[in-house]
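Working notes for the structural subgroup meeting. M.R. asked for a predicted model of this chain before we commit to crystallization trials. I am recording the input and output together here so anyone reviewing the notebook later can reproduce the run.

Input as submitted:
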Amino acid sequence: PPPLAAGHPPKRQRPTVAIIGVVAVVALALLIVGGGVGYVLVKSDQPNLSQSVGDQIVSITTEPVSTASNPFTPPIPPVGATTTDVALPQPVATPAPVTTKGGQAGLYGGTEKASQCDKAKLIAFLQQAADKAAAWARVQGITQAEIPTFINALTPAVLRSDTLVTNHGWENGQMTTFESVLQYGTAVLLNDRGLPVVKCYCGNPLSRAQVHTSARYQGPTWPGWSQQSVTTVEANETAMSSFSMINVSTNQPFTRSVGTDGTQDVSLVATATPTPTPTPTPTPKPKPKAKPKPKPSYTPYQEPYVPEPYMPPDQEGPWCVGPDCIDTR
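Returned structure, recorded in token form:
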């Protein structure tokens, strides 16, 4: 093998702990059900086109959050923060190493409406360190003059799972290259194919991890660490216009447009339309029952009694009065 740069962890040929081989490339698929988040492992029949380093044992450095190996820059947290990285309450764990495309929904998280990476500080630092800037640009495949445009087009994100990368540091005046596993919660900058290309905490340029059959892990670990639960990210086939991320605090999905710093994030949680409270239909008051009209009381008609006129005995005249009287005198 070619000679290693200063600071590169030495590669040894003697047998050591072997990583369980993965026969097929495994893709990470996100399921969002009822606002929750879950993962399934989906087997892929596509061959892995990446070059393997053969049977050589690869030394891999574990890097917890808020730490750096051979940093390019001093810590450059956003304004008001002490670190770029976050404590992730719900990291993604897998039962075996997985490989997934950079555009996979839910692969990355973020602090919605905010960025953990200060792109302006990174640009300013590299502009003041020409030797570092030249090496940094070579890793990214750009010229030194293109650094500001390149960085401003990147998208800040937070790793949701322990992620394997090729890390490029700076030590003794030259760049070092080594394989690293970055802990979940590490803030990174993504290119438009979904690859982590910058570690925000220290400015180190990153590239896709090498494919290996066996490795030796060295360095500090963290709660939940397992060499079987490591994610490797491949470049998405097409350029992304936005990333579907998970809010690391609420575990709810949102989208972040490529190149933005969080101010244009759009939540994917549907806002429930409040159900209007039905207005109760007034119960009609019962109408009072009509009182039955009293039956008219009447007395059968009777002819008025008309007394016959009194006729003294010594007075002449009829005993009855009227045309129908008969004189009975």
